[in-house]
Amino acid sequence: MNGNPRLVFSDIAVCNLKRKPFRAGGLIFLVALLSFVLFGGSLIAFSLFNGTDGLSKRLGADILIVPQGYDQKVEGILLRGEPSAFYMDAEWLGRIADVEGVRAVSPQLLIASLNADCCSMPIQLIGFDRETDFVVEPWIRTALPGALSDGEIVVGGAITGKVGDRLKFFEREYRIAAKMDNTGTGFDASVFMNMDAARRAADDFVAMGGSLTIPADAVSSLIVMVDKDYTADGVSRRMNEDFDYGNSGIVVVSAKKIVNNVSGNLRVLVTFVALLAALLWVLSVAVLAIVFSVMLNERKREFGILRALGITRKRLVKLVFLESGIVSLVGSVAGVFLAALLILPFRSYIHEAVRMPYMQPSIGQFILLVAASLLLSFAVGPLASLLSSRRIRRGDAYAVIREGEL
Amino acid sequence: MILEARAISKEYRRGDTTFFAVDRASLSIAKGEFVCIVGRSGSGKSTLLSMLAGLLTPDAGAVLFDGRDCALLGDEAISRLRNTRLGYIMQGYSVLPNFTVLQNVILPHVLFKREDDPYEKALALLDRVGIRPLADQYPARLSGGELRRVSVARALLPSPDLLLADEPTGDLDAESAAAIMRLFAEIAAAGTAVLMVTHDTEATKGVDRVLTMRSGRLAED
Amino acid sequence: MKNRIITGCGAILAGLLIALGPQYLFKLCGPAQDGHWMACHWTGRAEIGVGCLIAALGVGLILFPAVRTRLGLSVAILLAGILALLLPSILIGGCAMETMACRRVSFPAITVIGTLTIVGAALNAFLLFRRGEREGTRA
Q1: Nearest-CA residue of chain B relative to A393?
Q2: Domain boundaries of chain A, sorted by first residue
Q3: DSSP assignment of A129-179, as one string?
Q4: Which domains does chain B have, with CATH numbers?
Q5: Nearest CA of chain B to the CA of A299: how many Å?
Q6: CA distance C65 to A251
Q7: Which of residues 200-259 of A touch C (CB under 8 A)?
Q8: Which residue in A has a C-alpha nearest to residue B157's C-alpha?
Q9: What is the ipTM of this complex?
């Protein structure tokens, strides 16, 4: 069984492509590669931007204070949710609060859970003080107007389970009282509880045979908000001066510097991806234009026959655009589909691999990205056949009589 | 007169010299007339036929189809004329390789929008030229004679007023050639004007009128 | 014949990947510290069944030449592919954290293979359906 006998005009283009499957397949592959890189690259870049955005929004603190030697760990906690535990004396709370320009200070207690009922990998438990906290609080206030009791937890968006579910840490069950939205930052994989509950959890851990010594009254870190008339840089400099930088046992970390570092890295990456995509785009247009142009010479006789059968120049041009349009449409859709299929499900894997905040775009942004990528890669086909169409309009693209005939 | 040529010429350049492929050729064909132009290869027959079909524009003179000057018609109008009222059988094989035999025959039908379904008519034409069993085959599997018959069936699909045929019996065996000539005679008898060019003087039997072409000049025999 | 081998081998490959991938290639999470298995383990077990079913249907695609039979097999593969996607997402599920091995690698891999299986089976079914229709009317 060959071909559909009930032919319509567009079938001419379809038949021409079908009977040259390797040529058509090669061109489709090229366009698919282009749209794959275009869409995949922009999807990842967008997710990284979203992540950085989420980080600077979620990171309500201007300055972080951690024990000396742990400043590198802070980045791991914030960006990647790598569980850590470190401790310093709680008396620093009062000393920091007295520094000029400090508007608010709040302590946090970090415990790395070595196992939980759900998971065989560590989770970051964060104890926070609901009275003074200004980082977690704004995000859960609407979901949880009342107090957070000792048996209740707030979980990040990457942890499965809904409000009301129970999770077990160190043989003790906790009820999920609120769940935060995904941000693409390390907070997504964290579990928040009140200070007393966190201390009790640490005791549970020791009771289970874990090696963890939390000095009484210790905290892990202090988060600092600077008064709006003061700069974070200035205040951290003052802290370093006041507390004898290098010998005090604490380190002052500028939160802004972390965000700036991340967005700096991001800019380099995005520039690279954009350059690659632009290069590939130009290359695709060029290759397709050359192939179409060569094909045109090969097809002089075919076009001459169609002219003899009464096709108008306009419809001949339309036929050429139709063929290139089908090629680039199929290629674009296949490329975008494959990129989405490979990138969307593997988001945690990519997040871990890039070691930066990573958050996939919302549905609206996603649709916009798909549309833009489809449009850009689809344009390649028709653009590449512009040259051919000009030759057809001029009339030198089809042979009316064969060479040597008179 | 369905077709009239008034002193049409076409100049070609070969190297530094220009020469007339067709030199002030005039002819006219009435409905139902079967005319044959005989000439050696290189005498300008194909160029003449291309001008008569409106595919080439003459450098001088005029081609009138059904009383209308083709030079004055736009691309759309002249294409429609070719598509609906003219059957043109090109020299050599003019069957498109990417389509089946049946699709090839139906092809002219889809180049302009039409309401009717060409399917039955195309099958009947394939029957008439004796290759209906090959309807679903691709041209690569057909012999030279069969390919020529596909072109003939395709040219007849629009029920043209004028059939132009460029060497339709060239490189065919005697039997196939005779079959095609018989078919042309039948078509002419049914009212379609037939103009064919050939270098084969044998093929002119049973033709109403024979013209001779020599170095671009056309003369009545 | 060539089409039958290509489509059949595709289905067999996809089925084997769905069945064995989570066990050997893109491994699921191990047992928790107290030794009990988490949900992803049981999802993996169920995928062995679904994957083998898809592979067996793929063998059928190669063995049976009749268009209608292959159309039915393609639809069955399509449905089994949907089941392969539903097991980790809705029916059984996996670990609680997105960063766990099963949700980071195993389930995404199943999603990719399962989706490709569904798209391929749908395409094959569509082509076979059209072919059946054409041969039906023109026989």
Answers
A1: B75
A2: 9-54+262-394, 69-248
A3: -TTT--SSHHHHTTT--S---TTEEEE-TTB---TT-EEEETTEEEEEEEE
A4: 33-56+84-220 (3.40.50.300)
A5: 10
A6: 74
A7: none
A8: A309
A9: 0.90
How many domains are contained in chain C? 1
Contacts of A76 in chain C (CB under 8 A): none
CB contact under 8 A, C97 and A346: no
Long-range contact set of residues A391-398: C-beta below 8 Å, sequence gap at least 24? A391/A296, A392/A296, A392/A303, A392/A313, A392/A316, A392/A317, A392/A320, A393/A313, A393/A317, A395/A313, A397/A296, A397/A300, A397/A303, A397/A316, A398/A300, A398/A301, A398/A303, A398/A304, A398/A306, A398/A307, A398/A316
Helix, strand, or coil (residue B13): strand
Helix/strand/coil (H, E, C) string of A13-27?
HHHHHHCCHHHHHHH
Which of A117, A120, A341 is the closest to C29 by Cβ?
Answer: A120
What gap in Å lies between CA B109 and CA B103, rounded to an integer? Answer: 10
What are phi and psi for residue A5, nearest 5 degrees?
-70, -25
A216 in B contact zone (CB under 8 Å): no
Cβ separation A15–B45 shorter than 8 A: no
For the entire predicted model, the pTM comes to 0.79
Burial class (CB in 10 A: 0-12, 13-18, 19+), A128: buried
- Shortest Cα–Cα distance, A161 to chain B (Å): 59
- Sheet containing strand A152-155, edge to edge, reads A166-169, A172-179, A152-155, A190-194, A123-128, A102-113, A221-226, A63-67, A250-254
A285 membership: H or E segment, kind and range: helix A255-298
| Strand A152-155 to A172-179 pairing | parallel
Q: For residue C81, give both structure tokens.
A: 């592919």
Cβ C98 vs Cβ A187: under 8 Å: no
* Identity of the residue numbered B207: V
Residue in A5, A310, A402 closest to B106 by CB: A5
B102 touches chain A (CB under 8 A): yes
3-state SS track over A299-326: CHHHHHHHHHCCCCHHHHHHHHHHHHHH
Contacting residues for A57 by C-beta, under 8 A, at least 6 apart: A183
Please name the chains neighbouring A, where neighbouring means 3+ C-beta pairs under 8 angstroms: B, C
Structure tokens at C19: 């069945």
Cβ atoms of B38 and B204 within 8 Å: the answer is yes
Q: Which of B112, B32, C49 is nearest to A312 (CA)?
A: B112
Domain extent, residue C73, equals: 2-138
In B148-187, the residues whose Cβ lies within 8 Å of chain A are: 154
Both tokens of residue B44? 């300008």
- Give the tokens for residue A16: 């021409």
Written as tens digits, the pLDDT of chain A (406 aa) is: 455 667 778 888 888 888 888 888 998 998 999 899 889 988 888 888 888 887 777 777 888 888 888 877 787 777 777 777 788 888 888 888 888 888 888 888 888 765 555 454 567 888 888 778 887 777 776 667 677 778 888 888 777 777 888 887 777 888 888 888 777 777 777 888 888 888 888 888 777 766 667 777 788 888 888 888 888 888 888 888 887 766 778 888 888 778 888 888 888 888 888 888 889 889 888 888 888 888 888 888 888 888 888 888 888 888 889 988 999 999 999 999 999 999 988 888 888 787 778 888 889 989 999 999 999 989 888 888 888 888 887 766 666 665 555 6
| Angle, CA C113 vertex, CA A343 and CA C1 arms, to 5° | 135
Using a CB–CB cut-off of 8 Å, the residues of C that contact A are 29-34, 38, 93, 95-100, 103-105, 107-108, 111-112, 115-116, 131, 134-135, 138
